[in-house]
Write a structure and sequence with these properties.
464 residues; alpha+beta; Bifunctional carbon monoxide dehydrogenase/acetyl-coa synthase(codh/acs), Chain M, domain 3; Bifunctional carbon monoxide dehydrogenase/acetyl-coa synthase(codh/acs), Chain M, domain 5; 4-stranded mixed β-sheet; 12 helices; 19 strands
Length: 464
């Protein structure tokens, strides 16, 4: 017989379930995720709440169609004598943490990007939203005693989710606006976060005034509040220490913390670049900055973009090459708020290097893109191929075209070798840390150079 705080919960609760993945064949229902447009999670600090109240607006889990993906919202309200509005983002981010303690319940991402799955096994054993609410209530109060009262609302009614999501978006934007203004140079302390290490074991998020957490849910002010409220928690103080390269955003203190928290996997991090020693990428990032070598530019894509980017890849495909707590040259996980920062990819040329992005993201951040560049950045409405992109950039005199003029001309490989004699022309690829995956096997090549006349990857036919 189960005993303790969760004796009445039909599934196990504990940190051992962090990182549990629920695959589609094992899934009873998907809450939020990429197939639905409306989803959110929001935590508010209130003067007074009805402690322990759990409300379900819409059908319970068992009444949802098996295998379906539905609109979903979580609204948590907390109260306490020492609580303030500045703590909302910090407490909200712990939803991810606490949901993943529940066996058979998977939680990914944050804010308006949440993606949850409930397993068939958990439903058979009696897991409900009411019980999930009880678990969250107890975890919040035990892990964060500063919270005295809590009430939780789950929304599965699609119209109500859409209505409440609109209000949540306004609250997120107001939080983000409050965090702007302070510069990285103005502080001696950054903040680190390891909340995502259950899914990305070597990921260390460094949160600065001008570089939000990759998830887009934790600002520098949120980090400061979290470190004060829960000093032994997953968000902690990082002393900048000696400046190694201010333009690149490299600091001695940051490097020391990254080495320690990544268990020695990385010992350098430059905060304002997508190349060389970039910030690690978890899996909760809102978007990806990706290299487009054919035009020497950078493209952007975000989680809600349902098409293929200019390089022919979807967000999911690029996320697979980016995530896992790695530093991957040319694939860099970022938040949308980072696009509004003056430090955005500072070392790489910033907005003067960005050549393609989805139209809706461009509109969201338009006011923060230099006026002389904003209309020179292509979207999916302007171009569909690399050749079209090159023509667009040339026609609009994008700053990247100046890099083309400065780059040395490279003769075609066919013309380089005299007929009949010479060695074949080989392509060279420099690899900092690039994953190659096939057939369930992943090869990670670090600091390697690959020379090949031709590469053929073919599935091996097994002998019967």
């Amino acid at each position: 017989m189960k005993t303790g705080m969760f004796a009445d919960i039909p599934v196990d609760i504990g940190v051992i379930y962090e990182g549990e993945r629920i695959r589609k064949p094992d899934m009873h229902v998907e809450l939020g995720g990429k197939k639905v447009d409306h989803k959110f999670e929001l935590l508010r600090v209130k003067d007074e709440v009805e402690d322990g109240k759990i409300t379900i607006i819409g059908p319970e889990l068992k009444d949802l169609k098996e295998g379906s993906s539905i609109s979903f919202g979580i609204c948590i309200e907390v109260a306490g004598k020492e609580l303030g509005e500045e703590m909302e983002g910090v407490f909200e981010r712990r939803v991810h943490d606490f949901c993943n303690y529940i066996e058979g319940f998977m939680h990914l991402n944050q804010r308006y990007d949440i993606w949850l799955r409930v397993s068939k096994g958990a439903i058979k054993r009696g897991l409900t939203l009411q019980l999930i609410g009880k678990v969250l209530e107890r975890l919040y109060k035990s892990e964060l005693p500063i919270i005295e009262k809590i009430q939780i609302t789950f929304i599965t009614d699609p119209l109500k989710v859409q209505e409440m999501r609109s209000e949540a978006i306004k609250i997120y934007e107001a939080r983000d606006a409050r965090a702007r203004g302070l510069k990285d140079e103005d502080v001696q302390v950054f903040y680190g976060c390891t909340l995502c290490q259950s899914f990305a074991p070597t990921h260390v998020c460094i949160i600065t005034p001008q570089r939000y957490a990759n998830c887009g849910a934790v600002s520098w002010f949120d980090g400061r509040a979290a470190a004060r409220v829960d000093p032994k928690g997953p968000i902690f103080e990082v002393k900048k220490g000696k400046t190694i390269d201010e333009f690149a955003g490299e600091y001695e203190g940051v490097n020391q913390v990254v080495k320690e928290k990544s268990l020695g996997e990385f010992d350098r991090m430059q905060l304002y670049t997508a190349f060389g020693y970039p910030h690690t990428s978890c899996g909760c990032f809102e978007g990806v900055a990706f290299c487009i070598p054919e035009v020497d530019g950078i493209g952007l894509i975000h989680r809600d973009f349902k098409g293929t980017a200019i390089n022919g890849l979807t967000f999911s495909a690029m996320a697979d090459s980016t995530a896992g707590g790695r530093q991957v040259d040319g694939f860099h996980g970022i938040s949308i708020e980072y696009l509004r920062s003056p430090k955005f990819l500072h070392l790489d040329g910033g907005w003067s290097r960005v050549v393609w992005m989805p139209a809706d993201v461009k509109e969201r951040v338009r006011d923060f893109v230099p006026k002389e560049v904003v209309d020179k950045i292509a979207t999916e409405k302007d171009t569909g191929t690399i050749e079209e992109l090159r023509k667009f950039l040339d026609a609009h005199a994008h700053p990247i075209t100046e890099r083309w003029k400065a780059a040395p001309a490279v003769a075609p490989a066919e013309a380089a070798a005299p007929t009949g004699a010479a060695e074949p022309a080989y392509a060279e690829a420099a690899v900092e840390a690039s994953p190659l995956a096939a057939g369930g096997v992943v090869l990670i090549l670090k600091n390697a150079k690959i020379y090949a006349e031709k590469v053929i990857i073919r599935r091996e036919k097994r002998k019967k």
